[in-house]
Amino acid sequence: MKIAMMARNADLYSHRRLKEAAEERGFEMEIINTLRCYMNIASRRPEIYYNGAKLTGFDAVIPRIGASITFYGLAVLRQFEMMGVYPLNESVAIGRSRDKLRSMQLLARDGIGLPVTTFAHDPKMTAEVLETAGGAPVVIKLLEGTQGIGVVLADTERSAKSVIEAFRGANVNILVQEFIKEAGGTDIRALVVGGKVIAAMKRTGAEGEFRSNLHRGGSAAAIKISPEERSTAIRAAKSMGLNVCGVDMLRSNHGPVVMEVNSSPGLEGVEKATGKDAAGKIIDFLAANYAVGKTKTKGRG
């Protein structure tokens, strides 16, 4: 099997581990800088060029698309799909998960536990939005944010109104969510591969930080999740149509609630916290499921 990995930085831990795991199993992997690709969108002859040469002979593609290049990354991935190359995660599924509003709507449709989440266009509706979310404190999120960037905790009604009105005044789209105080600044990242949770860790925010992202100084430890949490993670991945993803959940008083479904989860934290060979599990799934032309879109919506 010959694998293309779409990634801008070949030296990242996750990308090195996936390449090592593939080569240990006798597969060939080429890491391709997504932004250096260009496409020939010709009738019945879709082609991708990289550094001046046409890409050919790939059986599967692993998309590791950074949030800042989602639009172009998905365009390149769709071109691979048009060429019959099997994607670890499909372009449509990644697009669903990257749109915070759409992903919340799909998860809600499928009955998956969520924090109360509100969305409005008119800043004059701020009071109604806060009331629907249960009042302060609330978490305010930019729709385009990632790795904890663009996430604000507003402790009071006054500060929440100020932040919401400032964002909407700048024509920035946001979600307003209830603050799950009982989570205590910790969340759960469940790594789902092929409809199974293969590893789970508890992430705890740095001192005085309500966000638990490891990129923001959080720490990670292995955790045993409940059957309900396991089921929630698997259903969330299915709702997005993702073969591989990280599902971020909080433990609330009314059960697990999903905060985000990440289509390009980092592997360093979960592998070091749990000792599990996550990269190997991902490559094993790819080897067992890839087939030329097997690019049918999964999931609804």
Can you give a write-up of this model?
With 301 residues, the chain is an alpha+beta fold. It folds into three domains: 2-95, Rossmann fold; 117-179, Dna Ligase, domain 1, CATH 3.30.1490.20; 182-287, ATP-grasp fold, B domain (D-amino Acid Aminotransferase, Chain A, domain 1), CATH 3.30.470.20. It is built from nine helices and 16 strands. The chain has a five-stranded antiparallel beta sheet, sandwiched between helices. A four-stranded parallel beta sheet has the order 2-1-6-7, sandwiched between helices. It has a four-stranded antiparallel beta sheet with strand order 8-11-9-10, with helices on both faces. A hairpin with a 2-residue loop joins β4 and β5. α1 (13-24) packs across α9 and α2 (70-82) packs antiparallel against α3 (91-98). The model has no long low-confidence stretch (mean pLDDT 89).
- The shape, in one word, is globular
Estimate percent helicity: 25-40%
Mean of all residue-level pLDDT scores: 89
Radius of gyration, CA atoms, in whole angstroms: 20 Å
InterPro entries: ATP-grasp, ATP-grasp_RimK-type, ATP_grasp_subdomain_1, RimK, Rimk_N, Rp_bS6_RimK/Lys_biosynth_LsyX
Binding site for Mg(2+) 2: 260, 262
Domain ATP-grasp: 104-287
Binding site for Mg(2+) 1: 248, 260
Which features characterize this protein?
Rossmann fold, 4-stranded parallel β-sheet, 301 residues, 5-stranded antiparallel β-sheet, ligase, protein biosynthesis, 27% strand, alpha+beta, single chain, metal-binding, 32% helix, Probable alpha-L-glutamate ligase, D-amino Acid Aminotransferase, Chain A, domain 1
